Amino acid sequence: GIQVEQSPPDLILQEGANSTLRCNFSDSVNNLQWFHQNPWGQLINLFYIPSGTKQNGRLSATTVATERYSLLYISSSQTTDSGVYFCAVSTHPGAGSYQLTFGKGTKLSVIP
Amino acid sequence: KAGVTQTPRYLIKTRGQQVTLSCSPISGHRSVSWYQQTPGQGLQFLFEYFSETQRNKGNFPGRFSGRQFSNSRSEMNVSTLELGDSALYLCASSLLSGSQPQHFGDGTRLSIL
To answer: Is B78 exposed, middle or buried (CB count within 10 Å of its CB: 0-12, 13-18, 19+)?
Structure first.
């Protein structure tokens, strides 16, 4: 099946700093989503971005489908950004087209 | 528009019992998927339903089963509970398929004693 690798696994930032999270995947995809899981376990949908670039406030994401990677940018980080960030993908029609495969996540800690 | 609703939020069971978890998708969404999250294995796909039919199943034993009703609400059942079944169970809904944005509920945290 498709492999999803996220880096770095852990990241500690000072409040106000910027960061870039990376997601590499091993096959072509028809869905790529970035999620933020807060300390209560809620999985918040940040971006649906199988290709291209999107921005939402301090967050932006870019997926280069031909090179099989996606980047999540967090600018001017805040303590509320702390949590685990997951990248998840689904593949083109065929086995696995109805499921998301998740990476292991990047645990972000923003300190005041 | 209401989000994905999962009930109950927390559940404590003992080994050997069975449990049923419920998921109500976003209105109009017809695809419902279930995922298990544990510290050791991360987020793993359990199964996906569309129009009351299971379209895909992950690599889990037959003790894990599910169903979907005509109103798209879904239930998953775990029989003969084991300690290793302790996990956060997440439900996601989308309009039609996995290629579309998946929206997750808050999860059911299941603890097995």
So the answer is: buried
Residues 6+ apart with CB under 8 A from A66: none
For residue A89, the Cα-to-chain-centroid distance in whole angstroms is: 10
Please give the distance of CA A49 from its chain centroid, rounded to a whole number. 10
pLDDT in tens, A6-23: 999 999 999 999 999 999
- Interface residue B111 vs chain A (CB under 8 A): no
pLDDT tens digit sequence for A73-106? 999 999 999 999 999 998 766 544 678 999 999 9
Is the CB of B104 less than 8 angstroms away from the CB of A35? yes
* pLDDT score of A97: 60
* Nearest CB to A102; choose among B31, B42, B99: B42
Tokens matching residue B101: 């944005």
Rounded to a whole number, what is the distance in Å from the CA of A13 to chain B's nearest CA?
23
End-to-end CA distance of chain B: give it in Å, rounded. 37
| Rounded Cα–Cα distance for residues B89 and B32 (Å) | 13
**Distance separating alpha carbons of residues B34 and B74, to the nearest angstrom:** 9
For residue A111, the cross-strand partners are A14
Q: Of B35, B7, B4, B1, whose CA–CA distance to B19 is shortest?
A: B7
pLDDT digits (tens, 9 = 90+) for A43-82: 999 999 999 999 999 999 999 999 999 999 999 999 999 9
